[in-house]
Amino acid sequence: MTAIRVKTRVPENRQVTVTLPDDVPVGDAELEIVVCEPVVEFTVVLPPDDGPTAFPSRPTNAQLAAEFDAFERMLPDLMKQYAGKYVALHNGEVVAVDTTEVGALTTARQQEPGRLVYARLVTDQPQPLPKITARRELRSG
Length: 141
What we know:
Layout: E1 42-45, E2 53-56, H1 62-82, E3 86-90, E4 93-98, H2 101-111, E5 118-121, E6 127-128
Antiparallel strand pairs: 1-2, 2-6, 3-4, 3-5
């Protein structure tokens, strides 16, 4: 299974075209489209040499905020068992554990289809902010 996360701005006509990467196999497939409200809010701490890091801030979505609060309450116990791994929470309970965020979310969504889950790295340290690179081709004529 290939998991692909795409962020986009949905235009007024609600039409979005997706071109899949070359490594996605051709043939019959089931694509899952999940529409979420943006949850990218960080408090940035800039260490001297390693680039920006941050602790995730509390989501604005009420359900995700409740899962965030549960994660924060559970963090000391999670550190004992799952330090360095990603956990996915639903209703304040761990429903999936994986070495990657996508893996934890994929497993959680298989176990809790259609339910909102919150996944996060089990750590008490701020994490490097992801580097977002984009390439734009300009063509004339």
